[in-house]
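Onboarding guide, step 5: your first structure request.
Type a short instruction followed by the sequence, for example:

Predict the 3D structure of this protein.
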Amino acid sequence: MNLQTSPRPAIADRRLILATDLDGTFLGGTEHDKQRLYRWIEANRDTIGLIFVTGRDPEFIIEMCAERDLPWPEYVVGDVGTTIAEVRQDGAIAPIEPLEQDIAARWGDKGQAVRAMLDGHPGLRLQPTLFRYRVSYDLAPAAYDAAAQERVAAMGLDWLISADRYFDVLPRDVSKGPSLRRLIDHLQIDEARVLTAGDTLNDLSMLASGLQAVAVGNSEPALSARLADLPKVHHARAHGAAGILEAIDAFELHDIPKGD
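The system replies with structure tokens like these:
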């Protein structure tokens, strides 16, 4: 699907802003359901804003949209919240400097110290990609020593385990939810127009942030359990893309196409 070719209303003026995780959520469900969601978004870009909130990096997002014919977002909260950026009309992803300066200050250039501290730690294998403001590991649950969490906290940083497979070290108070909140404030978006969507524990901070939220039908049981008593969370029956449409209808955020 094409990048923006004509002026649109400012994202803050649109009826619905969808802030969605990718893997398992926006990219989840049947091909029919995904295309139904994507075509509907493209047909209503004057009233729908799109923000990707993901653990993926900007390069992956550009490649994915270009090669897989997906709707292009206007903004990206990437790298598990450590990147906050605007998508330009040429497809480039440009960090929003005032927001990223805060992230950099919270990180304090501690990447090398984190890698040294957790080198050889039981159950953690360093991922080869170097990120600017995070360090990421593959996690082996059977071998993992939870002392890593205390060691990270002692450095003044946060840790995040998701899908029982990944361990991320992040700046203090930086993850999907807080970074999305900072972007919403920066863009002066009315939070009543925002729907967040996700499926794993690394979406918890976003879905529990007080914004309207949907845990799609294929969500991790641990995520659903943590969200069970929160009033603004819709627990969808439908998976992936269909779960997003189900929640938009349930919250009455926009007119949506009925199933065909």
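Each response can be followed by summary notes, for example: The two ends are 22 Å apart (CA to CA).
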